[in-house]
Design goal:
Blueprint (H helix, E strand, L loop, with lengths): L1 E2 L4 E9 L8 E8 H6 L18 E5 L1 H7 L4 E6 L26 E7 L2 E7 L2 H12 L3 H15 L11 H4 L2
Antiparallel strand pairs: 1-2, 2-3, 3-4, 5-6, 6-7
Helix pairs in contact: 3-4
């Protein structure tokens, strides 16, 4: 558990075996109890909410790490508390999405049965900015997707939510 004046988060890791698939999927989740209270302590996701925009829980797949380290397997994961950080808010006051756990960036160490591997998990805002940077030359083709990602990541004002992305590519 990582605690600070603004947040109290818990980190969970688990594996899921899906029937018919050879390898289990591995996930790391960050639960922010203060954001859960702020959301009025729901017992499940509300209609229209999905894990990618959940205000109190964020999920990272570690399947790439598992593939990279195969045949060795993950025994434990430690998130380095001091690395847990958010990006720079795009405006003041920051939009509500800025406080969601999916904005966290952090480093972790995975203990394998054969050693250790260090990983960095990036938040949705940083991923979105990297996506836009990579899309540079072909941005006109990816404007609708990029626009929607920016809205979800809190990088654009919610007042722009009614603007249709197709208008932006004209």
């Amino acid at each position: 558990e990582v605690s600070s004046p603004d947040t109290s988060v818990s980190v969970f890791c688990w594996q899921v075996n899906t029937y018919g698939q050879g390898k289990p999927s591995t996930y790391l989740g960050v639960f922010d109890i203060n954001r859960w209270y702020h959301a009025q302590m729901p017992d499940s996701l509300r209609a229209g909410e999905f894990l990618h925009n959940c205000p109190y829980f964020a999920l990272w797949s570690l399947d790439a790490v598992v593939s990279m380290t195969s045949p060795h397997y993950i025994l434990d994961i430690v998130v380095h508390e001091r690395s847990l950080s958010r990006g720079v808010p795009p405006s003041y006051p920051p939009p509500e999405q800025f406080f969601n756990p999916n904005t966290y960036n952090f480093d972790a160490t995975c203990l394998l049965n054969s050693g250790i591997v260090h990983i960095t998990c990036t938040g949705f805002q940083k991923e979105t900015l990297q996506f836009l940077k990579k899309s540079g030359p072909s941005l006109s083709e990816t404007i609708p997707d990029g626009y929607n990602r920016c809205l979800v990541a809190g990088l654009l004002s919610p007042r722009l939510a009614d603007v249709q992305p197709s208008i932006l590519s004209q």
